[in-house]
Amino acid sequence: MSFPGVQNDRPNWDEFMEGIWQRNPVFVMVLGMCPTLAVTVSAINSISMGLATTFVLAASCWLVSLMRKMIPKEVRIATYIVIIATFVTVTDYAIQAISLEMYEALGAYIQLIVANCLVLGRAEAHAARFPPVAALLNAIGMGLGFTLGLVMIGGVREILGNGTLLGFSLFGPDFQPWVVMVLPPGGFFVMGAWLLAFAIYRKHKDKNKDKDKDKDRLAAAPDAKTPA
């Protein structure tokens, strides 16, 4: 499937960084909330789920981009789902072979990557419109941004809920864990706290931009009044 007139003039670095910060899937676009809230009881679970999603996202978007001019628009969504499901199956068997304990910890959420709106959305909105290199870099950036979001939530939940990080004890045997953090409500609490922090940061950043614009406007005012 081709999209005439669509050109990619952005540098590869911008394609890569878009998903990590500017349009982070978790904290900006708020996508993939099911695994984000379900598997982030520990940092290692978050890393594993994020890397699995990154692989599926990158491989799927790369293949969709390669085939974008051959896929009829009438069946494009079904084709994308088949491609995504293929790489999810590969990932599912790979995790099962590498670590059965990790496979059991992630559970059905590995298979549910097929239904992750982040993966299908990037295939439809970006990979189907741009060449393979740009699609691959954008997908990797989005996947790493998703992984970063999961780790930021999972790390906080593990530290407060177990007193550990990546399995290493941080506070000793006297630490009283916040049990709620390893329960489903803990995911909502931490997610909400991070979203609030990012909202405050963006508001502060926008306010500073407005102040800089006002300063530039005042600095340019005397020059405007100076006669030629």
Topology of helices and strands:
Layout: H1 12-22, H2 33-38, H3 43-66, H4 76-98, H5 100-106, H6 117-127, H7 132-162, E1 164-165, E2 168-169, H8 184-225
Antiparallel strand pairs: 1-2
Helix pairs in contact: 1-7, 3-4, 3-6, 3-7, 4-5, 4-6, 7-8
Fraction in beta strands = under 5%
SSE sequence, one letter per element: HHHHHHHEEH
- Helicity range of the residues? 55-70%
In whole angstroms, the N-to-C terminal distance is 57 Å
Average per-residue pLDDT, rounded, comes to 86
What is the number of strand segments?
2
Radius of gyration, in angstroms, nearest whole number? 22 Å
Can you tell me the residue ranges where pLDDT is under 50 for at least 5 consecutive residues? 1-6
Structural class: mainly alpha
Tell me, what's the shape?
A: flat
Largest sheet: 2 strands, antiparallel
State the domain count.
1
Count of helical stretches: 8
* Spatial ordering of strands, largest sheet: 1-2
